[in-house]
Design brief:
Blueprint lengths: L4 E5 L20 E3 L9 E5 L3 E11 L3 H12 L7 E9 L2 E10 L7 H11 L4 H16 L15 H18 L2 H9 L1 H8 L12 E2 L9 E4 L2 E4 L14 E2 L1 H23 L3 H25 L11 H18 L6 H10 L7
Antiparallel strand pairs: 1-5, 2-3, 3-4, 4-6, 5-6, 7-10, 8-9
Enzyme class: transferase
EC number: 2.7.1.8
Subunit structure: Monomer.
């Protein structure tokens, strides 16, 4: 690869060459995913075997994806699109990640499609697979050594609590109208749940987390499920790469609540049925997650005391995201919060 470009390889690329007896001629065919796929970046499918994701704009290094993908290969974690390579180069005088090359997963659909189908049907069997998948990911990431300066336990309780309170304050500031008034009336109850972070044990282990783990990052494809997109959370600028596993788990469980809201809005699922489905799916996912950790002798990776405050904080961040980037998304976190804090529990 000529300078200023460089390639970091993870797994051997499948051959895209044609034999002399093949009818194919010229370069392998390429296509994009189409307008129906919501993408921050631009992805191209090559020969129905490889996906090249071009980062738009290029992301300055260090970037989480190359390190995580390299480690997952080393750890033998296979429940992701096979990572082949990362392309880097100098842009405006700074080293940047330009593209990621991974395997193409046939018949793949992301969770904002297939999981909404499950919610509409009232089915929760999939949640066992998701719980085991998330636990397997965390078991692999927990073996990635932390850099110097990252302590074995959780960040100070005050730092975590301050960050959560700041998220609530920003959500209150950015959420206007009737939704804002409703949210302000429940801010006290939300603060009380966030206060659990102030007394969280300092022994909670820190691991390299996914950082943006929701159902949209989990593909259902021909041969099962795969977790993708290790770019971190683009909406949280100061997010530490090493955090309690509960951070990922809380985002994944709340995304099931968001799926329920999508099913209500887009599939006309009755709200009571959708909420009951979300409760069952969450419980099933958490049971499978705990069991997988216990099987590996790592039950201590999940600090249960952090789940609820992290979930409340996540909904605040969803409201911030909606206000700053996607206003039409506000209905989902507001619907979840209305389920969590019904009218009679506002005191």
């Amino acid at each position: 690869m000529p300078p200023p470009f460089a390639v970091q390889r993870f797994l051997p690329l499948p051959t895209l060459s044609y034999g002399h007896e093949d009818l194919h001629t010229g370069a392998p065919g390429e296509r994009d995913f189409g307008d129906h796929v919501d993408q921050t970046n631009y992805s191209v499918v090559v020969d129905e075997r490889v996906v090249v994701k071009w980062l738009t704009p290029p992301a300055p290094l260090p970037h989480p994806a190359p390190e995580i993908l390299a480690h997952l290969v080393e750890a033998g974690f296979n429940d992701t699109a096979p990572p082949y390579a990362a392309l880097t180069g100098v842009v405006d005088g700074r080293e940047c990640l330009l593209a990621l090359v991974t395997g193409y997963l046939p018949e793949a659909r992301d969770g904002w499609e297939w999981c909404v189908d499950e919610a509409e049907r009232g089915a929760t069997g999939f949640a066992t697979d998701l719980g085991r998948l998330a636990a397997g990911l965390h078991l692999a990431l927990a073996t990635l050594p932390a850099p110097p300066g990252v302590v074995a336990g959780m960040e100070t309780a005050a730092t975590e609590a301050d960050r959560a309170r700041a998220a609530l304050a920003e959500a209150l500031e950015l959420t206007g109208g009737a939704d804002g008034a409703w949210l302000a009336a429940r801010a006290g109850a939300m603060r009380r749940e966030l206060a659990a972070l102030e007394t969280a044990p300092a022994t909670s282990p820190l691991i390299r987390i996914h950082g943006d783990l929701h159902v949209g990052q989990i593909l259902r494809w021909r041969n099962g499920y795969a977790v993708i997109d290790f770019d971190g959370n683009p909406t949280v600028a100061d997010a530490a790469p090493y955090q309690p596993a509960a951070r990922d788990v809380a985002q994944l469980t709340t995304s099931l609540d968001h799926v329920a809201q999508v099913a209500i809005k887009r599939r006309s699922t009755p709200p009571g049925e959708a909420a009951a489905w979300a409760r069952r799916a969450r419980a099933t996912l958490l049971t499978a997650y705990r069991r997988r950790l216990a099987e590996a002798g790592r039950a201590g990776l999940l600090d249960e005391s952090l789940l609820r405050p992290f979930e409340v904080e996540q909904e605040c961040r969803e409201l911030i995201y909606a206000a700053r980037h996607l206003p039409r998304w506000r209905y989902a976190p507001m619907g979840v919060l209305r389920t969590w804090y019904p009218e009679e529990n506002t005191a």
